[in-house]
Automatic annotation (TrEMBL):
<dbReference type="GO" id="GO:0005524">
    <property type="term" value="F:ATP binding"/>
</dbReference>
<comment type="function">
    <text>Involved in cytokinin biosynthesis. Catalyzes the transfer of an isopentenyl group from dimethylallyl diphosphate (DMAPP) to ATP and ADP.</text>
</comment>
<dbReference type="Pfam" id="PF01715">
    <property type="entry name" value="IPPT"/>
</dbReference>
<dbReference type="GO" id="GO:0006400">
    <property type="term" value="P:tRNA modification"/>
</dbReference>
<dbReference type="GO" id="GO:0052622">
    <property type="term" value="F:ATP/ADP dimethylallyltransferase activity"/>
</dbReference>
<dbReference type="GO" id="GO:0009824">
    <property type="term" value="F:AMP dimethylallyltransferase activity"/>
</dbReference>
<keyword id="KW-0808">Transferase</keyword>
<comment type="similarity">
    <text>Belongs to the IPP transferase family.</text>
</comment>
<dbReference type="GO" id="GO:0005739">
    <property type="term" value="C:mitochondrion"/>
</dbReference>
<protein>
    <recommendedName>
        <fullName>adenylate dimethylallyltransferase (ADP/ATP-dependent)</fullName>
        <ecNumber>2.5.1.112</ecNumber>
    </recommendedName>
</protein>
<dbReference type="InterPro" id="IPR027417">
    <property type="entry name" value="P-loop_NTPase"/>
</dbReference>
<keyword id="KW-0809">Transit peptide</keyword>
<dbReference type="InterPro" id="IPR039657">
    <property type="entry name" value="Dimethylallyltransferase"/>
</dbReference>
<keyword id="KW-0547">Nucleotide-binding</keyword>
<keyword id="KW-0067">ATP-binding</keyword>
<dbReference type="GO" id="GO:0009691">
    <property type="term" value="P:cytokinin biosynthetic process"/>
</dbReference>
<keyword id="KW-0203">Cytokinin biosynthesis</keyword>
Length: 332
């Protein structure tokens, strides 16, 4: 399945209250009058989290905060699968490609920066959507700050997802993964810090050393193939670990999570996949978020269901006046 970023609610961007201030402006902490409402989009790598967050931000006045611990770093856009400027569709993205690649960015750092981003977004009467597969970052933010939270979990059956992520690695290699990693290669690099921890970097070490040492073409080709296979194995392992952590958040911490099964999307292609995405993932997600925004704060978490969402919710045609009012009221 090729991931496309469709925007069935794109008309919301024509509203006058949706003129985006620059996301590069410094954040200024604000005094909290009430608990802010925040939407979290969770899921294993490759399931379509970024697509859903962008589609939702086209349905609601919203901005996106990245919570992927590798995508926070500058550089290696192919390796870390950052959404492109085109795919962002004009939606402001925070903490995406902003951190020095050699820095050791921790959960504490994310908590501090994301909290300020949430406050900045809410201060503009917009909805914060936090998206990413680094559940430790999400957990650090939720457990330390008092937000009214709506959790959306994009799920895909592991056999289907494993096949997809392997194909995605092949596409990444075709897009220039090797050249990208070659650009930051250092023989004495520390693969336990910064962006060099990203899957796709340490796996290329032996191949790049062979290049540097002038090994023959056959050896280099063999080592490159081994590196690509290792990247696939490690990416599949990452997906399993991310799923385990999501189940932990549900089972041990008692988080209320909406599960959106996107498996059928990955079994289709082209326009058929888009139709299934809108029906089985985007429509119910938009309905859940709309209900979340319209609820009173004290009732919000009590009514969130942990069951799988399999049917589309109400129509995605949302009155601009009603939605503007709902987001303004709910995020303050």
């Amino acid at each position: 399945m090729e991931v496309s970023f469709i925007a069935p609610c794109k008309q919301s961007h024509h509203l006058p209250f949706l003129n985006f201030p620059s996301s590069k402006q410094p954040f200024k902490p604000i005094h909290r009058k009430e608990m802010e409402k925040v939407v979290f989009v969770m899921g294993a790598t490759g399931t379509g989290k970024s697509r859903l967050s962008i589609d939702l931000a086209n349905c609601f006045p919203a901005e996106i905060i990245n919570s992927d611990k590798m995508q926070v770093y500058k550089g290696l856009d192919i390796v870390t699968n950052k959404v492109t400027i085109e795919e962002q569709q004009g939606i402001p993205h925070h903490l995406l490609g902003t951190i020095d690649p050699d820095a050791d960015y921790t959960s504490d750092d994310f908590h501090r920066h994301a909290s300020l981003a949430v406050e900045s977004i809410v201060d503009r009467n917009r909805l914060p959507i936090i998206v990413g597969g680094s559940n430790s970052f999400i957990e650090a933010l939720v457990l330390r700050d008092k937000y009214e939270c709506c959790f959306l979990w994009v799920d895909v059956s592991l056999p289907v997802l494993n096949s997809f992520v392997s194909d995605r690695v092949n596409r990444m290699v075709g897009a220039g993964l090797a050249d990208e990693v070659r650009g930051i290669f250092k023989p004495d690099a520390d693969y336990s810090r910064g962006i060099r921890r990203a899957i796709g970097v340490p796996e290329m070490d032996r191949f790049l050393r062979a290049e540097m040492n002038g090994e023959d073409a056959e050896t280099r080709e063999r080592l490159l193939g081994m590196a690509i296979d290792k990247i696939k194995v490690n990416t599949r392992g990452l997906a399993r670990r991310q799923l385990s952590k999501i189940h932990r958040l549900i089972d041990l911490l008692g988080w209320y999570v909406h599960r959106l099964d996107a498996t059928d999307v990955f079994l289709k292609s082209g326009g058929d996949a888009d139709v299934v995405w809108e029906k089985q993932v985007l429509a119910p997600s938009a309905a859940i978020v709309r209900s979340f925004l319209q609820q009173r704060s004290e009732d919000a978490n009590r009514t969130i269901s942990m069951n799988a969402i399999t049917t589309p919710g109400p129509s995605l045609i949302i009155s601009p006046t009603i939605m503007a009012t709902s987001v303004t009221a709910a995020t303050r």
